[in-house]
Amino acid sequence: MAFRSLNHLLLLLGLLSLSPPLTLPRKLPHNANFFREAPAFRNGQPCGSSANDTIHLAMTLDSNYLRGTMAAILSILHNSGCPENVFFHFLWLRFDQDIKTNLKTTFPYLNFKLYRFDSSRVQGKISKSIRVDLDEPLNYARIYLPDIIPRHVKRIIYLDSDLVVVDDIEKLWRVELGDKVLAAPEYCEANFTQYFNDNFWNEPELQMIFQGKEPCYFNTGVMVLDVEKWREGGYLRKVEEWMVVQKQKKIYHLGSLPPFLLVFAGNIKPVDHSWNQHGLGGDNIEGRCRSLHPGAISLLHWSGKGKPWLRLDSGKPCVVDRLWAPYDLYRYRYRSFKHSFDY
């Protein structure tokens, strides 16, 4: 079910004020399993068993964000009506036995496959961004996702690691794409001009990309992709072409997001805003606390500088961070709540 408000979520979770946290390392020590084992989630309603009933999800794996990824996986399985039908496709830069071990011991029954993303594919194509972690090669892996996953996968949901899903992911999976390649919540009330700098807006030839369109901002941390249409339409090449323009003319400062906007803005399938309550990590500079947008809630997304696990560990969490904490499987987490999910 989608939740109506922050108070609704807090009431259902039974969350109380936070007690002083432990000081925790941001990276996992070598050969350590720092996560509790999650239960084996089983299909609880009539669920198909054919290949067409499989829900394909893609995420990246990185030691710095592994705690967030674990929470995201748990939230998806916990709130899914057919968790055994969910298949995860994980992209990482290199084989990491510690990450693989933590993943398999935390979720012994998880359906997943690991893929190496070759960082040389973006060598010379990444420009300096407003935030250092936006410049990481793995942040650009979503652009190459349709070329990496198996050919039999026709549709996939891409999700960032700094989010939790509080609704049945199948609802997002079943979105009708029509003739569109990409579906995502879009925000036409946002100031679209801020995603590009004067070098872009002062060059009429570049602006022509939006001619005849009504471009709106969308967040690339939650996307449904028609993989076949992406491949057939050569969209990898189209996105890469804008990355080359960026290297030459410096037309934006936000990592992998702007080239997606340049190719797709004004031509996506809009999804209900409940599927990306984004910006909970604050802005890209200070990461200050933000409140939820009005409306229903199906997915909470800590895009921005502030991440909930770091703010909770620091003892200075935002109110919305309490909504992430019950999905935290970290063994040595803060003792924060009267009630959370006991696995």
Structural features, described:
The structure is a single chain. It contains eleven helices and eleven strands. It has a seven-stranded mixed beta sheet. About 4% of the residues have low confidence.
Summarize this structure as a short list of keywords or feature phrases.
343 residues; alpha/beta; 7-stranded mixed sheet; 11 helices; 11 strands; 26% helix
Q: What strand order characterises the main sheet?
A: 3-2-1-4-9-6-10
Q: Give the helix level as a range of percent.
A: 25-40%
**Count, helices:** 11
Helix-strand pattern: HEHEHEHEEHEEHHEEHHHEEH
Overall mean confidence score, pLDDT: 88
Distance between the termini: 21 Å
Radius of gyration: 20 Å
Count the E strands. 11
Low-confidence stretches: 14-26
Q: Specify the structural class.
A: alpha/beta
- Major sheet details: 7 strands, mixed
**Amount of beta strand:** 5-15%
Shape: globular
Quick overview:
The chain is an alpha/beta fold and 343 residues long. Helices cover 26% and strands 13% of the residues. It has helices spanning 6-13, 66-78, 97-106, 141-148, 169-173, 198-201, 204-207, 227-232, 235-249, 257-264, 308-314; strands at 55-60, 86-92, 112-116, 155-159, 163-165, 182-184, 186-187, 217-218, 222-226, 269-270, 299-301.
List the helices and strands and how they pair.
Elements: H1 6-13, E1 55-60, H2 66-78, E2 86-92, H3 97-106, E3 112-116, H4 141-148, E4 155-159, E5 163-165, H5 169-173, E6 182-184, E7 186-187, H6 198-201, H7 204-207, E8 217-218, E9 222-226, H8 227-232, H9 235-249, H10 257-264, E10 269-270, E11 299-301, H11 308-314
Parallel strand pairs: 1-2, 1-4, 2-3, 6-10
Antiparallel strand pairs: 4-9, 5-11, 6-9, 7-8
Helix pairs in contact: 9-10
